[in-house]
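re: the backbone from monday

yeah here it is again, tokenized this time
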């Protein structure tokens, strides 16, 4: 599956953004999906994950209550709604296909090119 992220940008602390991940080339609806982020000088970390049918969703504690992951299989698109953004949310955000199992996400190796989110303090 080929992935392409969009929706990043500059936003003030407390603002909102919605990221999109458009998929093509394979059956999107059969893949569990996740959002990752990588801040400068830090390792890439998973932020949120969702099962292929959207029935289970996990988010990391640092974004719980602020970020919501969702998907529209009819549009081959996954979303990340980010509210009440904090300076520490600044990072490049990537989407990935993979497997969500026992609360952990195992990426398949298919990544998008990333979209930059910069939160201004």
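seq for it, each position gets an aa:
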């Amino acid at each position: 599956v080929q992935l392409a992220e969009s929706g990043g940008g500059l936003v003030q602390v407390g603002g909102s953004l919605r990221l999109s991940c458009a998929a093509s080339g394979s059956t999107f609806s059969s893949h569990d999906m996740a959002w990752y982020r990588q801040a400068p000088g830090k390792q890439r970390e998973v932020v949120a994950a969702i099962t292929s049918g959207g029935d289970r969703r996990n988010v990391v504690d640092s974004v719980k209550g602020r970020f919501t992951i969702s998907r529209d299989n009819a549009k081959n698109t996954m979303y990340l709604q980010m509210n009440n953004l904090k300076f520490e949310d600044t990072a490049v955000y990537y989407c990935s296909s993979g497997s969500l199992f026992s609360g952990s996400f195992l990426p398949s190796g298919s990544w998008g090119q990333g979209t930059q989110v910069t939160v201004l303090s």
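The radius of gyration is 13 Å. The chain has a mean pLDDT of 95.
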